[in-house]
Design brief:
Chains A, B: GO terms for molecular function: acyltransferase activity. The structure is a homodimer. By secondary structure, chain A is an alpha/beta fold. The first copy, chain A, has 19 helices and 22 strands.
């Protein structure tokens, strides 16, 4: 500590001294968190950590959300760290798998975001955390701007358990635009040689939305949003849900559903939401993080988004995850669904982890407050049960075949094999069949709430599984019966006119249209500009 | 806003102007949060609100955790507010019931804490919030000291949705000991005429613990904590769980369980935890709030509690609730349990609400990370199921008869009548039978995980319900069979020697003993001092 103080001018440490700073504050075996989430990464500090002397610093236990950068795995390769508790690995999943197989990484457990944050306040409190912010002043006050994300959880756990908090910042300033983290919680700040890197991962180009996706979106709006009166919800980030967002101002508006559905969302500021916001459909959005290019547009809609007095957004993954968990509905896509409705995005040879989907995509059994949607879904679920209870809607939206003509519906999830290969305690299931209420495909909607037992659930799934082997093996008599009682609904049962399912229904058909809707405030990254 | 600015010297408003300030910032129909939680209340601001002109301010929609003070209901009596969304009403339950019956309060819904906070970030964002803190500086930086509690959730939602945040503080100082809420999030601060009131609600005098409670505590330790290896948990606040805490250093230590069970807790700093902390049983505690008299002791154990650089505790209900939700076990007491295992603390004529128990006492279906306890409980629950899953332990600990010789076990919960009287959408159930895994009475433990169906569950409950009518109506043959397969366990089945169940087993037998264990640092409130 003495040594680290000598490196610092007050709280400010020069970028060139970052490696030395880490060597002086870290003890072998320390628990360490490197901030890494969807938008921002403490990338400079992560790279610095990978360069410390492994004689001095070794055996670290890494507890962090997102393993995304090569440096995150370099620390294991070099023996600086050997234990890992995390949420999500994304592009590093393959390399992580190899390092685990080689015994260089011992994985404690794979978490969803809220679980890992919870353990920061229990048995996995970091002793040292490396975080990222937009700006700091000399007193260590941090400005995280639009991308607050995981910072509050990491900072609070570390700072209040006598830990050391080191922040890399894009710039050191005289006065921060607003204080997101009070300076007296922060140990050191380092101005990084370049700003932390951000990837526009929530941007979907409307030009790539297909008519099949539009058809599914129409079914979702009539068969689920309208039926239950869904007002508070969370959307996944695929093209399927982008299609729903883009037909709210057209299809849903014609059905008279403005002010009736989709008013409050817990999502990142996806550009495809702009037309629904501008046409008064979506009234409030709380975000886990930001999205590149959306800053000015978001700042201009303080009536919809959460904005600080400095005029920029405040995100916070904890509150976004919580609001989504207690919302009326989650809808997202997946890679595989089995005959019980269990779904998984696990791919062989990779350890990808969970992120936030299982939290959004599970029953909120601690919930007690009613809403129209929750109570109505509860009634469907409760048939014959003595003690009534509400129910969250958890919807999977998939095409029956995914890329490469792999069937989405399978007898057995790859997750089982993955469990074997990586010696996991359970197969890595993203959403469990008994948490899922609806599955939507281009063929129709299976309502699992209306299935009396596992065999009916299986047939309801087969009944919407199209020409996949699972779909072809349906029992036609049972499927007809399920359709009669509403456990299966095809477009014609929902009053959905398939002929309308074309791209004219999209409120925006290109990124340029989105810019137009935003009044020029949305500034898409270059890669999305083709004009 | 112009008018309110004129009342303020910078951000500071005189206490005498509090009513005028509220009249100037509030618009009819505004959504308003008055901070009120277990420990601290914005009591001065609540009283000021009750005094505003109802000609100027009326039709407010109150969105707050805890209705505890007469002033909280005066605002409805006076027509200043007419809508309410809340969590818990406690001592005001009876009066609230009357006001609802008279149509002066329209209740939106009754929530658990996390749900209501979630809605602050969705459809129930307050436009004005009245909060309480220990100290403020002229810039509005707030120091919440040990009792941070709900403040971060309220503050973040209000400040970042262009709302107005008014803090009452015990004192205005030149420099706050640490910054808990950054000043630029705060609109106004008012020094209250007297400090906010705190009630020592988590203090249980060991002198009142009975031998029956000690017997139940022994069964919990052998039959549940040891069996599953429970390391992360949440305790309720009754004498039953205090008894468990007080025999950790004696009974559990003799069983060799130090370092094996009860290492990490999410609870308030209950004084009865002191011996377990001092004897090295409990290693880490994160608190939702503080407890009167525990301040110095807690500050001295920065290795166990979360402590700021100013040397006092940092509490935060959100993280404590989350850590408890994702822990391995919750154990708490209740007033009534029915034959399905549904439990309720509802009492006729009162609307008491939920607080945090349903969140702690429900399955965490979004959880994905394994632990010994969670996986082992999952195996018991999964028998015969295709897709394995872990399981949280949710334990109810009750004596078969409660005060007034009312049986705890009933055929039908009073909650059903309450639903009728107050026109609630569902009966107010605290923990649902299918979330509960174990019920512990003085007769034994029912393990609901090992029951194959509802009829077995009913007999397992009857089998530990003693001499209540429910217990007397047991089917002895079924009960014997359930005992054979471990779904019922009596003390002798658990290796619990009933003769040891006496007060000699308590590590502390009085408040004075607790003070002694704490090395004189615990300073109990006067009412608990009888020496």
């Amino acid at each position: 500590m003495e040594r680290s103080r000598r490196l610092a001018d007050g709280k400010v440490v020069a970028a060139d001294d970052a490696v030395k700073l880490l060597e002086s504050v870290l003890e072998p075996g320390d628990r360490l968190c490197i901030e890494g989430n969807n938008q921002k990464h403490a990338d400079f500090l992560a790279a610095s950590l990978a360069r410390v002397s492994s004689d001095q610093v070794h055996g670290l236990h890494i507890v962090q959300s997102n393993l995304a950068l090569p440096a995150h795995l370099d620390v294991f390769e070099r023996g600086i760290a050997d234990r890992l508790d995390f949420c999500y690995s994304g592009p590093q999943g393959l390399r992580l798998g190899r390092l685990v197989a080689e015994g260089r990484v011992r994985v404690g457990a794979i978490h969803t975001y809220l679980e890992l944050y919870s353990r920061y306040f229990s048995d996995l409190t970091p002793r040292v955390s490396l975080i990222a912010a937009d700006a700091a002043d000399a007193a260590g006050n941090l400005y995280t701007g639009e991308n607050t994300e995981d910072t509050p959880a990491i900072v609070e756990a570390t700072a209040f358990k006598s830990g050391i908090l080191i922040a890399q910042v894009n710039r050191i300033v005289d006065e921060v635009p607003r204080v997101d983290v009070p300076g007296d919680w922060v140990s050191y700040v380092v101005e990084a040689p370049k700003p932390y890197y951000i990837e526009p991962i929530f941007t979907r180009d409307p030009a790539a939305i297909t008519e099949v996706q539009i058809l599914m979106a129409m079914m979702v709006i009539r068969g689920i949003y309208q039926k239950y009166g869904v007002t508070r919800l969370n959307h996944g980030i695929g093209f399927d849900t982008a299609a729903i967002e883009l037909i709210l101002p057209t299809y849903a508006a014609e059905l008279g559903l403005r002010g009736e559905i989709c008013q409050y969302m817990s999502v990142n500021p996806c550009p495809t939401l702009i037309p629904a916001i501008e046409s008064g459909f979506v009234e409030g959005i709380h975000c886990a993080g930001s999205e590149l290019g959306m800053e000015r547009y978001v700042a201009n809609r303080a009536d919809v988004f959460f904005i600080g007095r400095d005029g920029t957004m405040r995100s916070n993954r904890i509150f976004c995850q919580l609001a989504g968990h207690y919302a009326d509905l989650f809808i997202g896509s997946t890679l595989q669904i089995d005959l019980e409705g269990n779904s998984s995005t696990a791919t062989l040879n990779r350890i990808t982890g969970f992120g936030g989907a299982p939290n959004f995509g599970s029953e909120s059994r601690g919930r007690r407050h009613g809403s129209k949607s929750w109570l109505q879904a509860g009634e469907e679920a409760n048939r014959g049960r003595h003690m009534p209870r509400g129910r969250k809607l958890v919807v999977q939206i998939v095409e029956t075949f995914r890329e490469g003509l792999e069937p989405t519906f399978v007898e057995r999830l790859d997750a089982w094999e993955l469990q074997q290969s990586f010696d996991l305690p359970l197969p890595p299931v993203m959403a469990y069949g008994d948490d899922i209420t609806h599955i939507v495909t281009e063929e129709g909607i299976a309502n699992l709430l209306l299935c009396d037992d596992l065999s009916e659930r299986e047939q309801a799934i087969r009944g919407i599984a199209g020409y996949t082997p699972v779909g072809l093996a349906r029992d036609r008599a049972v499927v007809d019966r399920l359709r009669e009682k509403g456990a299966i609904a095809y477009p014609e049962d929902l009053g959905v006119d398939k002929r309308l399912a074309n791209r004219d229904l999209l409120a925006a058909r290109s990124i340029k249209d989105l810019v137009h809707w935003s009044g020029g405030l949305y500034q898409p990254p270059t890669r999305f500009r083709n004009w």
